[in-house]
Amino acid sequence: MSEAPVLVENSPVDAAALREEVKAKYREVAVEPDGDFHFHTGRPLADRLGYDRAVVDPLPDAAVESFAGVGNPFSFGSLGAGETVVDIGSGAGFDSFIAAQQVGPTGRVIGIDMTEEMLDKSRATAKAMDFDHVEFREGLLEAMPVKDGSVDVVISNGVINLCADKALVFSEIMRILRPGGRIQFADIANGNPVPEAATRNIDLWTA
Amino acid sequence: MMEQSGFVDVEIGPPVDTFGGAGGEKNARAFAVSGYAFKARKPG
Asked: Does A49 sit within 8 Å of B16, measured CB to CB?
């Protein structure tokens, strides 16, 4: 890579309006995962992003079909047994369930999401999989319902770019991580500058 | 942005053609958008 990719900086869009647009879009992904979206979803997407089929194939459809990530947060390595993990923007729980297998029953995974339909789906799947060490909490990335310094690893996949105030999100991640803790996440970044007019257009954030 | 937030040892993985063949491909190509994996550590 000749130049480092650039995460889109904070934007002047209305944060609450953007949040409602994002909720509406991902409500569709939860309820109608085979719908027509501008991004890939489900098992074909997991294949495209390089997830290990030996890990993905055994997962139930409900855990995979609404997956809409943009990369593989585990490409830097597996999580450790016993670690406490927070998956921010956990959606239907795809990455949370992979993390749960990696940390094992002595570890803990907390998924955070703001979309009710995604939370319903991820909680039902965790129950069906008998994953007692996984829970899903309703919350925003800008105000995570997690104690200070209580987390070994934060993971995320394609969600931080959907937040208007990314500096606040990274500040929250820093708050919940223990000293020496780490973040492993995937997100989109652009190689060409995005015109300011485009960054103000909420429709372009989710379309 | 991550370093400004206090993270250290920031690593970035290779680009992934996340939107290729999807409806969002045209916009992704226009702004050279790809998916990336990132890793960083909180000091301590």
From this structure: yes
**Whole-model pTM?**
0.93
Q: Does B29 lie at the interface with A, CB-CB under 8 angstroms?
A: no
- The third-level CATH classification (topology) of the domain covering A15-189 is Rossmann fold (3.40.50)
Question: Nearest-CA distance from B29 to chain A in Å?
Answer: 9
- Phi first, then psi, for residue A154 (nearest 5°) are -110, 130
Interatomic CA distance for residues A142 and A91, integer angstroms = 16
Restricting to A residues 59-98, those with a Cβ less than 8 Å away from any Cβ of B are 69-73, 75-76
For β-strands B8-12 and A134-138, DSSP reports them as unpaired
Contacts of B36 in chain A (CB under 8 A): 5, 71, 186-189
| A102 and A77 Cβ atoms separated by less than 8 Å | no
Q: Where are the domains of chain A?
A: 15-189
**ipTM score above 0.90:** yes
How far does the CA of residue B22 sit from the closest CA of chain A (Å)?
A: 5
Print pLDDT tens along chain A (207 aa).
345 565 555 566 888 888 999 999 999 999 999 999 999 999 999 999 999 999 999 999 999 999 999 999 999 999 999 999 999 999 999 999 999 999 999 999 999 999 999 999 999 999 999 999 999 999 999 999 999 999 999 999 999 999 989 999 999 999 999 999 999 999 998 887 777 777 777 666 665
